[in-house]
Design a protein that fits this description.
mainly alpha; 87% helix; 0% strand; elongated
Length: 159
């Protein structure tokens, strides 16, 4: 069984990956759907405002801090190599690092940057908006699933 400081690390990893999954789920479940229902100019402007507002210390501590915790958990797992939970711990760390943090870096952020470069009231923005929403949301679904699966793996490691 995992206990002591290592247990605290895994619990924090669970909390961080679970909170991140919740944020991503909110976007997939209703935020992007609501934005997609707006006229393109309003949707583009609103999403750009959300993307700027998202980079706050509170969210970044949870999102990036969870990535740091996942790295620490993976390294400690390799060093300690516990009898119980090692597969779940390594899988949970990999799911979050690749499936949440990695997808954000290679799929969602580049789309956000491309959207930010558009002027909302232009035909170019109107044409790009439905494509952006469809692609961004697809990648967000994957981030949601990966973050939630990471949280589940950490819980399984503790049981």
């Amino acid at each position: 069984m995992i206990d002591g400081p290592y247990e605290v690390l895994v619990l924090l990893g669970f909390l961080g990956t679970g909170l991140t999954a919740g944020v991503f789920f909110g976007f997939s479940a209703f935020v992007t759907r609501g934005l997609a229902a707006l006229p393109a100019a309003q949707g583009v402007a609103a999403m750009n405002a959300i993307n700027r507002a998202a980079v706050t210390p509170g969210f970044m501590v949870v999102f990036a801090g969870s990535a740091v915790l996942c790295v620490i958990i993976a390294v400690v797992t390799f060093v300690v190599w516990p009898d119980d939970g090692k597969t779940e711990l390594l899988l949970g760390s990999a799911l979050y690092l690749c499936g949440a943090f990695g997808i954000t870096a290679v799929a969602n952020v580049p789309r956000n940057e491309a959207l930010a470069a558009l002027v909302p009231d232009t035909p170019e923005a109107a044409a790009h908006w439905p494509v952006y929403v469809r692609e961004w949301t697809r990648w967000n679904h994957l981030r949601t699933l990966a973050s939630a699966a990471a949280a589940v793996m950490y819980v399984l490691a503790l049981t």
